[in-house]
């Protein structure tokens, strides 16, 4: 009895306190919840239905921080090469024919010996910088031009949309000549090697026998290494920025998660959606996952912190009887600023890129592995390392022979020192063996310490393996900063300076 009597007053006081504090929220608890972030998918789908047959408009890039300008190019703004001969593929029968979209900057020298092939990341088009045909900013705008990292006063730069893409080059959304309908998932599985071979078909068409350099970031770094591996005598130098020579399990897992949410969208329809609605919901979610891997926690802590999105001015602000405002009611839809950022990134991308291209190209990235056993599994025999000396920059080629010419070749190897790993990866000797064709090719390896997609340990691994393979012309640098993987798009001073110093 004593226990019951002791509890009753406490219970009454608590009840009274709760009832007065929650009066304004009690009525709201009876309302049917509203979820704008979920309703947005239906709104988008309705907009797509009314827009079928025309180009989709997407939100403009966020102005709240540094973002790369990716956009769907107009077909009239790039050049097109059609290859009417079969292209051998790594995992499938030859592709009967294909198109490659490309753009160029600078002037080709009479000897055609000043060419730089610029390789793109997964979702980029050939529009790396503005041109007369397309004055819009490109995804590497500040790195290409007179006096910039890729100096158009010295070099002729070519950038293509990769095979498998959706910005002009042949991919799953292209028409299959055999059926007259889009390939969809009947398109063959591709490898990074296939993409590079297609690019060299373009070079053959342009009469370009050799490259001064092959330059790439992210997936483009894989292509750059693959170009030097496939064609040691045709590639003078290799630049690998925030890439890898062997896709790691963690990166494969991230890309698998993206493909999984995309393929779970009912609109994906096993890849056959070109006559109907695209899998826009899956694409939005896939892009949100990707965005997490492209940036870094420290950047987001500085940029967004734990701040909430501003409430609309019309929003009711319930208060306690004594006039104090009640704590803000958390929302299950984007509420933190970082959530609104991810939501925006997914929204502005989901209708900009073809879902099947994302699936096929991301799979090609997963399959990339330059270790000797992996190459043997693909029946790829090692070409011999280049026999000719590395190319001299145009500034030296145009001057009389001097000691500077000989010194140039010995000065290419410089590096930020890094301690040897306490536990070297077991695959490092296999990678060194696989990279033998690059033993005589000057290579710049650039990594970013805040990168979680291609961690800096992978950049060290590439540099170490090249040196183990006998390459004495490896330049290796690590960059600080908080931008994560996207540093290669945003840090003009440091990334651009390293490239310019290596190429000049």
Key words describing this protein structure:
12 strands; 17 helices; single chain; alpha/beta; 8-stranded mixed sheet
Task: Give a count of the beta strands, DSSP E runs of length 2 or more.
Answer: 12
Give the biggest sheet: 8 strands, mixed
Give the amount of beta strand, in percent.
5-15%
Summed up, the helix count is: 17
Can you give a write-up of this model?
The chain has 504 residues and is of the alpha/beta class. The protein has 17 helices and twelve strands. An eight-stranded mixed beta sheet has the order 1-2-6-3-9-10-11-12, with helices on both faces. Strands 4-5 form a two-stranded parallel sheet. The chain has a two-stranded antiparallel ribbon with strand order 7-8. Helix 6 packs antiparallel against helix 10. Residues 1-17 and 54-64 have low confidence and may be disordered.
Structure at a glance:
The protein is 37% helix and 10% strand. It is built from 17 helices and 12 strands. Helix 6 packs antiparallel against helix 7 (280-294), helix 6 packs antiparallel against helix 10 and helix 7 (280-294) crosses helix 9.
């Amino acid at each position: 009895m004593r226990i019951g009597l002791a509890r009753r007053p406490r219970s009454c006081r608590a009840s009274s306190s709760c009832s007065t504090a929650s009066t304004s929220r009690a009525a709201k608890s009876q309302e049917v919840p509203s979820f704008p972030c979920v309703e947005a998918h239906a709104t988008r789908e309705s907009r797509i239905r009314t827009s079928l047959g025309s180009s989709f408009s997407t939100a403009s890039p966020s102005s709240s921080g540094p973002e790369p300008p990716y956009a769907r190019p107009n077909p009239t703004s790039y050049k097109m090469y059609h290859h009417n001969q079969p292209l051998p593929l790594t995992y499938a029968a030859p592709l009967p024919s294909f198109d490659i979209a490309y753009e160029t900057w600078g002037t080709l020298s009479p000897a055609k010996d000043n060419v730089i092939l610029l390789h793109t990341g997964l979702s980029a088009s050939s529009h790396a910088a503005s041109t007369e045909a397309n004055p819009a900013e490109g995804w590497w705008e500040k790195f290409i031009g007179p006096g910039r990292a890729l100096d158009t006063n010295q070099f002729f730069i070519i950038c293509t949309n990769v095979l498998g893409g959706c910005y002009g080059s042949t991919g799953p959304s292209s028409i299959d000549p055999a059926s007259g309908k889009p390939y969809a998932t009947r398109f063959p599985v591709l490898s990074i090697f296939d993409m590079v071979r297609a690019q060299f078909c373009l070079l053959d068409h342009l009469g370009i026998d050799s490259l001064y350099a092959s330059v790439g970031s992210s997936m483009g770094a894989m292509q750059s290494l693959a170009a030097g591996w496939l064609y040691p005598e045709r590639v003078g130098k290799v630049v690998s920025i925030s890439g890898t020579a062997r896709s790691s399990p963690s990166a494969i897992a991230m890309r698998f998660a993206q493909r999984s949410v995309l393929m779970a969208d009912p609109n994906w329809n096993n890849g056959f959606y070109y006559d109907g609605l695209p899998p826009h919901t899956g694409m939005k979610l896939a892009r949100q996952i990707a965005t997490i891997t492209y940036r870094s926690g420290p950047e987001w802590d500085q940029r967004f912190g734990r701040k909430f999105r501003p409430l609309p001015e019309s929003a009711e602000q319930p208060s306690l009887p004594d006039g104090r405002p009640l704590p803000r009611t958390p929302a299950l839809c984007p509420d933190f600023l970082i959530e609104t950022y991810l939501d925006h990134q997914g929204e502005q991308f989901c209708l900009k890129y073809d879902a099947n291209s994302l699936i096929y190209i991301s799979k090609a990235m997963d399959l990339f592995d330059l270790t000797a056993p992996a190459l043997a599994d693909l029946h790829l025999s090692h070409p011999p390392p280049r026999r000719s000396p590395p190319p001299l920059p145009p500034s030296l080629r145009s001057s009389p022979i001097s000691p500077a010419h000989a010194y140039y070749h010995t000065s290419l190897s410089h590096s930020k020192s890094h301690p040897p790993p306490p536990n070297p990866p077991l695959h490092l000797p296999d990678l060194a063996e696989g990279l033998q064709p690059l033993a005589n090719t000057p290579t710049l390896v650039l990594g970013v310490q805040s990168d979680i997609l291609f961690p800096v340990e992978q950049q060290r691994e590439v540099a170490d393996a090249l040196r183990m393979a006998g390459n004495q012309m490896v330049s290796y640098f690590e960059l600080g900063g908080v931008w994560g993987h996207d540093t290669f798009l945003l840090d003009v001073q440091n990334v651009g300076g390293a490239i310019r110093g290596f190429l000049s």
